[in-house]
Amino acid sequence: MPNREQTIRxxxxxxxxxxxxxxxxRKTVIGSFEHDLIxxxxxxxxxxxxxxxxxxxxxxxxxxxxxxxxxxxLDVLPTALRSELDGTPWKPSKPDRGWAAxxxxx
Length: 106
What we know:
Blueprint: H1 4-13, H2 15-39, H3 45-64, H4 70-85
Helix pairs in contact: 1-2, 2-3, 2-4, 3-4
């Protein structure tokens, strides 16, 4: 089971993974403003930073505590961030234990 530091090391170890991770965080943060810009058209650097850090923390939590794959965590991230921004704590699905845990015996 990866811990927080190992998850970060794994991301930094492979430049392609890090670029993909950073790109998806960026896309998630930009997407999170779409609804908010209708209400309030100004975006501050502090808001961008806050949403980026929140996205990062949610991603790490999904990887470490819920055992989500990198891909699954990135796929779920926009929904989780939107939920948190709306003031409703995000309720994740059950922890992902990998394919072996759910294997059906014949």
